[in-house]
Amino acid sequence: MKTVSIDVRRATTGDAREVSEVHRLAWQQAYAGLIPHKPLTEMLERRGEAWWRRAAKGPATLLVLDVEGTIAGYATMGLNRARALPQEGEIYEIYLRPEFQGIGLGRRLFGETRRLLKSLGCSGLVVWCLEDSEHATRFFRRHGGLELAEGIEDFAGAELRKIGFVWP
Fold first, then answer.
1. On the chain, which terminus has fewer CB atoms closer than 10 Å, C or N?
2. Which H or E run contains 105?
3. Structural domains in the chain, sorted by start
């Protein structure tokens, strides 16, 4: 039986093309039908390879999930942006290529992201997701997130509810 190499590591600027592709595919799958077409398309166009090359340099931390040399997913994290919440860390984004979903890799990337935030001294964690994103809400509930905050995200006039999941 062959051993598969799976690694969660900090992204480099050389990962930008693949992270851009993961972002495009994952967001199309996750948000088509939730976020109106025009703002979703504009968001995807803004975050091409050059954007991800800059993101790999900071200030947020960008991790990638590398499976046998293929970037299967990514996560961005840093300090909590919602000052009203006491949690110090925040996972801004966590996404996998559609073909890598449902086999435990999201759990692995999420766990490594949480461990890194904790090792950086962050007490507590918050993750925001759209309320109507059933896949995301199910994932965060299954991994112990408590729904303790809510808000509104505006997509070119379309206001969508979001949920803040927290971990102590």
1. N
2. helix 105-119
3. 6-167 (3.40.630.30)
